[in-house]
Write a structure and sequence with these properties.
- With 327 residues, the protein is α/β, with parallel strands linked by helices.
- It folds into two domains: 150 residues, NAD(P)-binding Rossmann-like Domain (Rossmann fold), CATH 3.40.50; 164 residues, L-2-Hydroxyisocaproate Dehydrogenase, Chain A, domain 2.
- Helices cover 41% and strands 19% of the residues.
- The protein has nine helices and 14 strands.
- Helix 4 packs parallel to helix 5.
- Bound molecules: ligand NAX.
- The site of ligand NAX has 28 residues, from helix 1.
Length: 327
């Protein structure tokens, strides 16, 4: 039986995270071993020679599922009829650059990209923004795609979610596969809130397995600062783990979250948990057939509610800083 290829766009394709993601996607780790794929690799003009090298390596892998590779610095070519988009491309924070400058500079990238996706991508496209500040970049892209639903855009907090699962597994001496129902709330920033209130470890509530002090004073800051610790150690930011999380995020969104578990995704807020609408905010989500649903019926304690408010305030301030870039 002939199976039609799915076309996947990857921005920032000449960058570090993309280099860790592209080969895994071409090997079938995103859509499975029966689904042929075509890759549209997008970057800025000066990166095209380097991208040519990546294309040669893809040929040299002779991946059975890989049917086509397009390289482009033209958004209308790059996003034409794509089914899925991984947006890694972004400007790094330069020396002396304030967070507000970074928001502005990257906002200018994500507006035109959202517009091009709106014009030429598949009407069922699913978009994941990884480039920082990821949540607000995703909001800008969604605002520039009025013919699509805001729910077709998301930002990545999955790396933070997996970091939290892994540290809890190590602290309790369990295999990480036994850690379910972790929640990562809010913004992909040091303000993010990793929440173990509903987490289960090998069937036991996590709260019964760890001290409250360890959770608040050690675990939460460790997850919030993990990206910075990786940069200190490697001299470069997380790449393989970020690529892994991006593939997990998209795979669960499209193919579904496991039964009896959920994941954390930054998605358009519809007011659930009292979070202001029109923000891209990380919530616990269940997915099925490329649709996500926010798990909206969890009780929050005062501590959790305060952390959500802090994250909401930070994202509202980010939105205000790019107000003129939102159409
Ligand atoms: P790199 O600097 O290695 O790569 C970025 C790539 O984007 C470069 O090839 C650059 O030419 C390209 N680019 C710049 N402007 C572009 C445009 N207008 N269109 C297309 N491509 C463009 O960064 P890398 O280490 O790959 O990180 C990519 C992004 O992920 C960064 O913004 C980084 O901060 C962010 N991260 C987000 C994480 C998350 O959990 N959400 C974690 C990892 C990472 O820090």
């Amino acid at each position: 039986m002939h199976v039609q290829s799915k076309r996947i766009a990857i921005t920032g394709a000449a960058g570090n995270i993309a280099y860790q993601a592209i080969f895994r996607i071409a090997a079938g780790e995103f859509l499975g071993s029966q689904q042929p794929v075509a890759l549209n690799l997008i970057d800025i003009h000066p990166a095209m020679p380097s991208l040519g090298g990546t294309a040669m390596e893809l040929e040299d892998c002779a991946f059975p599922l890989l049917r086509d590779v397009v390289l482009s610095d033209d958004l209308e070519v790059g996003f034409a009829e794509v089914d899925y988009v991984f947006m890694f491309g972004a400007r790094p924070r330069g020396k002396g650059m304030e967070r507000s400058d970074l928001l502005q500079e990257n906002g200018k990238i994500f507006g035109p990209q959202g517009q091009a996706i709106n014009q030429v991508a598949s009407r069922d496209v699913r978009v994941l923004v990884i480039g920082n500040p990821a949540n607000t970049n995703a909001l800008i892209a969604a605002h520039h795609a009025p013919d699509l639903e805001p729910s077709q855009f998301s930002a990545m907090t999955r790396l933070d979610h997996e970091r939290a699962r892994s540290q809890l597994a190590m602290q309790t001496g369990n295999p990480v596969a036994e850690v379910t129902r972790m929640i990562l709330w809010g913004n992909h920033s040091p303000q993010m809130h990793p929440d173990i209130s509903y987490c289960s470890v090998a069937g036991t509530p996590a709260r019964e397995l760890v001290e409250a002090d360890w959770y608040r004073d050690t675990f939460i800051p460790m997850i919030q600062q993990r990206g910075a610790r990786v940069i200190e150690a490697r001299g470069a930011s997380s790449a393989a783990s970020a690529a892994n999380a991006a593939i997990l995020h998209m795979r669960d969104w499209v193919l579904g979250t496991p039964a009896n578990d959920w994941t954390s995704m930054s998605v358009w807020s519809d007011g659930t948990y009292g979070v202001a609408e029109d923000l891209i905010f990380s919530f616990p989500c269940r997915c099925e057939n490329s649709a996500h649903q926010i798990v909206g019926d969890l009780e929050l304690d005062d501590f959790g509610r305060e952390r959500l408010k802090e994250n909401e305030a930070e994202l509202l301030a980010e939105r205000d800083a790019v107000r003129e870039l939102l159409s």
